[in-house]
Every structure is written in structure tokens, then in C-alpha cells.
Amino acid sequence: MASRETRNGDRGGLQDRSAGRLGRAIGFIRERGPLEPLRLVRRHGIAESGRFVLRNVRHVVADRLARNWDRKYGVDTAGSIRLDSLDVVGPNRDKGNECVCTSPKSFRFIMKNLPSNLSDYTFIDIGSGKSRTLLLASHYPFRAVVGVEFARELVEIARRNVEQYRDPEQKCRAIFVVEADATTYDFPETPLLVYFYNPFSKDLFDIVLGNLVSSLERYPRGCFVVYGSSSHRAIDWARPAIRETGVFDELNVPPMPHFLDAVRTIDYAVFRYRRA
Ligand SMILES: C[S@@+](CC[C@H](N)C(=O)[O-])C[C@H]1O[C@@H](n2cnc3c(N)ncnc32)[C@H](O)[C@@H]1O
After folding, report:
1. Is ligand 1 within 6 A of the CB of residue 127?
2. CATH numeric code, 93-273
3. Do the Cβ atoms of 82 and 19 come closer than 8 Å?
């Protein structure tokens, strides 16, 4: 299900910031002349310019690997999709972060640091985008896998992906995508693994976390919370917010390695509900 790409970063009708990066760089040099890169190095310094180039090379490589992964499984999960032009449920569009999916290697690394017997648990991805994590989570024997996503176009793509994705290694086929603003989502009364990959601002996170804690206090049960973030450094406020609830213990987990299939390296934290 390869999506079509145009030069202005429009891919399959969505505003995709990862589309045409290389083409844009070449266009920029053509427009400003071959000496422009040297002028930019002089203005920003070698170190900063080196970091900029590396960031972009990394992005291009990760994007290429994501598209290969999509081709292999006949799905559409790649890209950095802007939310501005999407049809969003509820009033929180401006507090949401663009849709960039967790890399398969990063996801598997996180899962290695969780207990292996989660067959009673429901995996929930808050802000599930195009469903990459749902597809990856279906390789573990969860009771069910649920994505909550507020952008209609992403929900439609995610549901098509779930239909399309078949792998002999899949261990859970009960995969659901709920179209909703995460702040209105009612958690199921099963043990939970709740996954966040930097979906939105702190005020929304506080509401969702409050809803989760209320649900756990009403029906105490096993619960893990995984919070991942990258460029926005959301982990710096998410980690203290989860600690301050006073009902979770943080697990000691190893740092994420630099995986080539990740646009950015994820900083993550894992918490376990104390009163189960
Ligand atoms: C960084 S992406 C993460 C995608 C996916 N969780 C993953 O790891 O592959 C953040 C996603 O959260 C969604 N989102 C942002 N605010 C939301 C909200 N209030 N309710 C539901 N989804 C939201 C965005 O549309 C986007 O798809």
C-alpha cells in the first residue's frame, strides 16, 4: 500500500514532513547556489552544521527503513504527519503532536524490559497514529491490543492496516482502533499496559493519567505505564508527573540504543502500579 508522494510533502493526501527531504535539500542548493552550504557552516559553526546534517541523514535512513517495513507487510505506517489538515475529534488538536510512529526496534527493546507473561493484559496505545505499535504489540500474547486516536484519517489508515497485516508470528488478533480524544477514553477493567509515545501536551497527559489512576483505584489490577519521548523531552515532565501520583513504582530499565530505524532515539520510562 505505497502512498503517492508529491514535491510539496503531500503523501497519500496527508501533509508528511518526512516526504521529499532529499529533494528539498537539492532544490535548496540549486536555488541558492553551490556555495550556500559553506555560508551556512560559517554562520552556524561546524559542530552545529554537522549535527544538522546527521539529523537529516538519520531521518532519511529511518524513513527509508520504515517504508521498506511497510512494503514488506503491505501497510502504511511511515512518515511524520502534520495534524493541521486532519479531521480531529474534540477541541485538542493544537495540543497534539504530529504522527511519527515508534520504530520496530525501539518497541521490541522496550518490550524486552517488561515481564514476559502479559497474557491477561490489554495493550493500549494512547495516540496510536497509523497503528505501527498496535501491529508490533500483536506479536505478544496480549488479551487485546487497543489504539486510541483522535484524527479520523489516521484511524482509517490504522483500521486498514490492521485488516491487511498478517504475520505467522502474530499472537493476538484482537486489535481495535478507537476514534476518540484520549482525555475522554474509559480504560477497560482488565490489567493494562498503557503506552504513550509523546502524544500531546502536559495538561492533556495529566487528565489521561488522572483517569487511569481513578480507574485503577476503582478496580485495582495490574498496570504498567510506558512513556517514551524524543525531541520534545516530554519525559522530563512525564516522569515526575507519574511519580507524583504516588501509586506507581519506576522500574530500572536500560537506556535505549541508537537504532537506525528510529527517526530519533527514544528516552523511555516504565512504571508498575503498586497496589495491584
Ligand atoms: C508521536 S505520535 C505516536 C504514534 C504511535 N503511538 C506510535 O508510537 O507509533 C502521536 C499521536 O497521538 C495522536 N494524538 C495527539 N493528541 C491526541 C489526543 N488528544 N487524543 C488522541 N490522539 C491524540 C496524534 O494524532 C498522533 O497520531
Report:
1. yes
2. 3.40.50.150
3. no
